[in-house]
Amino acid sequence: MEMTAAASLTVSGLTRKFGAFTAVDHVNMAVSEGEVRAVIGPNGAGKTTLFNLLTGHLRATAGEIRLGSQLISGRRPHELAQHGVTRAFQTTNIFPSMTVHENVVTALLGVSRRTFCFWAPPDQGIERIADEALDLVGISEHKNRKAGILAHGDQRALELAIALAPSPKILLLDEPTAGMSPYETQRSVELLRKIWRELNLTIILSEHDMDVVFNLAQKVTVLVSGRVLADGEPAAVRSNPEVVNAYLGGGDA
Ligand SMILES: Nc1ncnc2c1ncn2[C@@H]1O[C@H](COP(=O)(O)OP(=O)(O)O)[C@@H](O)[C@H]1O
Ligand SMILES: [Mg+2]
């Protein structure tokens, strides 16, 4: 895969309403190039809504999103993928009857079709990139198996390969370890760390498992009721009394 330049992401005044209810409320967030940022907060805090805004799956009611200096709010998911913003889905995004390799190739074609000759020479280039992505996430051995018969952990790895294959500048992961066993969670933290080391990219993830957050993230944003309650380095956030009260005090941290 290509090594792309990681990009910064700046969110200002980002707001999303559903009717009278404000799910994301004037969120400001500045993520540096190459940073791993965790977004944490209780259920219903607006994390998934924020991710859907960042990937263009939802339109903002107000506010801006910039990739580097470029305004990207209002763009659709495939346009954002071309700009280097991709996500691995919380819910499954793979075609079970296609092979693992075909899934990655199909996803790459989806991104490349809308660009002009970006992936030239098309076929072999795409096949090779798909192979590299599968190798990176450690599921090459399953390449020719149908995706639907993979173990849960390997399906999650495939989703990651699909998100990484277009060489994103920013990778968004909404609760990447949700539903995983402690062993799978550990494997997936190691994998994300390896990916972050080997590819030059910025990662933004939402996460409920505080061990994962403190093992991966350089900075943490705490969202409560759609608003940023605190952000900063993990140790500072963890000892912030407001955060402890509103969230970490709950017992699962
Ligand atoms: N499409 C929608 N329509 C109405 N309300 C929504 C919609 N999506 C999310 N919400 C509400 O927005 C709030 C934030 O949800 P969500 O972003 O999923 O939070 P989190 O991912 O932090 O658990 C919740 O109260 C949820 O019910
Ligand atoms: Mg969520």
Molecular structure report:
The chain is an alpha/beta fold. It folds into two domains: 170 residues, 3-Layer(aba) Sandwich (Rossmann fold), CATH 3.40.50.300; 73 residues, no CATH class. Helices cover 36% and strands 24% of the residues. It is built from nine helices and ten strands. Strands 6-7-8-3-9-10 form a six-stranded mixed β-sheet. It is globular. The model has no long low-confidence stretch (mean pLDDT 89). The structure holds adenosine-5'-diphosphate (ADP) and magnesium ion (MG). The site of adenosine-5'-diphosphate (ADP) has 11 residues, from strand 2 and helix 1.
- Average predicted confidence as pLDDT: 89
Shape call: globular
Helix content: 25-40%
At the fourth level of CATH, the homologous superfamily of the largest domain is P-loop containing nucleotide triphosphate hydrolases
Query: How would you describe the oligomerization state of the chains in this entry?
Result: single chain
Ligands (ions, cofactors included) = adenosine-5'-diphosphate, magnesium ion
CATH topology of the largest domain: Rossmann fold
Sheet of most strands: 6 strands, mixed
What's the total helix number? 9
- Tell me what portion of residues adopts beta-strand conformation: 15-25%
CATH architecture of the largest domain: 3-Layer(aba) Sandwich
- From the helix content, strand content and strand pairing, which structural class follows? alpha/beta
Q: State the low-pLDDT regions, or none.
A: none
In summary, what is this structure?
This protein has 253 residues and is α/β, with parallel strands linked by helices.
